[in-house]
Amino acid sequence: MEEICTKLDEALLEYLSLISKYQENWQQISKELEGAFMQLAHTKYTMGPGRLTQDQYDGRMQAATRILISQNLGVEEEEKHYNHQFSLINGHLENDENINESESSQSIDNSSILRRRNVKELETKTDNTNKTKKPQKKQIIRDPLHWFGLLVPPSLRDSQKHFKQGLVNMVNLLNIRNEILEKEAQYRILKQEKEKFMQELSKSKEPVNEEKNTQENVS
Questions:
Q1: Number of CB atoms found within 10 A of residue 32's CB
Q2: What is the DSSP secondary structure assignment for residue 131, as one 8-state letter?
């Protein structure tokens, strides 16, 4: 009984600590986003409204950062609805051959022909030269700041830093939320164990009370 009560107290303290951590992370996210939009507004004022629009976006843009969702193997079966772990990874980098192929193809038919041709060439290369494998060249994802020129104002770089840090904090917030849900489930299980123990204890005391009552009636 004492062990269950100790675990309940520890789970409750950890739960309150996670709640405090969750609120602090929310405040940090709001600060980062506020700073990002303030710096973005300053950049728009410096460069002019026509220099910072969607017209400068690159149509071939790729995600520089992606979110990896993995399974948390330490979670029980009944808790599988929140056993995901979120983490940031670098964006997928395509090789130069696929990029050049997509840029040179003018229609779907031409692109399919080029793909078939490349597949045949790759098959012949792998059959003939299995020993010498050339490393694939990775495309370096272009910094989105360069869409608006090579020499951008420092405020635009600061805005990008704020947005990146805000994204990191958002991912951390999701992981903290999952920890909170896991701690709530752990607390409920311990509470059920305590209630079950109390019921068994009360049942074991009932026969003793009945014997005392019968002895008093006889006397």
A1: 20
A2: S
pLDDT in tens, 76-102: 554 455 567 788 787 654 443 443 444
Which amino acid, one-letter code, is at 154?
A: P
Q: What local confidence, expressed as pLDDT, does residue 22 receive? A: 95
> Per the structure block, which two tokens stand in for 34?
């506020």
Query: For 74, left (φ over 0), alpha (ψ -120 to 50), or beta?
Result: alpha
What gap in Å lies between CA 192 and CA 197, rounded to an integer?
8
- Mean pLDDT, the chain, rounded, equals 74
Cβ neighbours for 184, distance < 8 A, ≥ 6 positions apart: 15
Residue 36 CB: number of other CB atoms within 10 A? 19
* 178-194 pLDDT tens trace: 899 988 988 888 888 88
Closest-CA residue to 60 (of 90, 89, 88, 94)? 94
Strands 65-71 and 84-90: antiparallel
What gap in Å lies between CA 4 and CA 107, rounded to an integer? 68
Residue 107 DSSP class: S
- Rounded Cα distance, 205 and 185, in Å: 31
Q: How far apart are CA 183 and CA 191, in angstroms?
A: 12
Phi, psi of 67 (to 5 degrees): -105, 120
Angle, helices 108-128/96-104, rounded to nearest 10 degrees = 150
What percentage of the chain's residues is helix, strand, coil (to nearest 5)?
A: 70, 5, 20
**Structural contact between residues 162 and 33, judged by C-beta atoms closer than 8 angstroms:** yes
